[in-house]
Design goal:
Keywords: Lipoprotein, Signal
Order of helices and strands: HHEEEEEEHEEHEEEH
InterPro entries: LolA/LolB/LppX, OM_lipoprot_carrier_LolA-like, TAT_signal
Number of helices: 5
Strand order of the largest sheet: 6-5-4-3-2-1-11-10-9-8-7
CATH class: Mainly Beta
Protein name: Outer membrane lipoprotein carrier protein LolA
Number of strands: 11
Helix content: 10-25%
Pfam family, one: LolA
Shape: globular
Radius of gyration: 17 Å
Organism: Shinella kummerowiae
């Protein structure tokens, strides 16, 4: 199966709506827990949810991304554990994000530029692992509510102050949304829907054009 280049059209997100969304995200994700309390909570229901999510080896679906300045984009995503993900942004966005298990690249098809990072140095590494170990070292916060379980993960040794907040349906254990907060406190949220799991995905979906990246860097 190969990724579609045409995403579903989405509307424009108003700044007020975006502010409300971020307020909800932060309220859900930033409960005040000590590492011991977080670890105790994570050892039960939250760990079961994390185990279920990480047991899903492949998935694909649609997404809507909300950027730190209130911008909204959408498209299709593909995940293959461990370490592989691809975002195809819908037109007119020229962007592509690909992780092949080792590196993450952000490509601009219009400008023909690529930025490359080690996957292990980004919070996406936590999302794409074969296991999400909710140990005290990694868990920043856990909050369980009737309609939402929120898990905030980070590793200061690997990512500094960057974190990833994952929001799950407590009944189905399905992932609804994740938010990556960078070291400057800026949030990028991804909401997913129309998700299919256990789908066959061609390795070419996650192929990074290293030759093109090297050629651009040598100019």
């Amino acid at each position: 199966m190969t990724p579609s280049e045409n995403g579903r059209a989405t509307g424009t997100l108003t700044r007020r709506s975006f502010t409300c969304l971020m307020a909800f995200t932060l309220a859900a994700g930033l409960s005040v827990l000590s590492p011991v309390e977080a670890s105790a909570q994570a050892s039960a229901t939250a760990q079961k949810i994390a185990d279920h999510f990480s047991s899903v080896k492949t998935m694909m679906g649609e997404f809507v991304q909300f950027g730190p300045r209130g911008e909204q984009t959408g498209g299709k995503f593909f995940i293959d554990r461990p370490g592989k993900i691809r975002f195809n942004y819908e037109d007119p966005s020229p962007m592509r994000v690909i992780a092949d298990g080792k590196s993450v690249v952000i490509g601009n098809r219009k400008l023909k530029t690529w930025d490359i990072y080690p996957l292990s140095k980004t919070p996406l590494n936590l999302l794409l692992g074969n296991k999400i170990d909710l140990s005290a070292k990694m868990v920043r916060n856990v909050k369980e509510e009737a309609d939402l379980t929120t898990i905030v993960l980070g590793d200061r040794n690997m990512f500094g102050d960057s974190t990833i907040t994952m929001m799950f349906d407590p009944k189905t254990y399905d992932l609804r949304q994740w938010t990556i907060t960078d070291a400057q406190g800026k949030d990028t949220s991804v909401m997913i829907f129309n998700v299919k799991t256990g789908v066959p995905l061609d390795d070419k979906v996650f192929s990074i054009p290293y030759d093109e990246i090297r050629n651009r860097g040598s100019k």
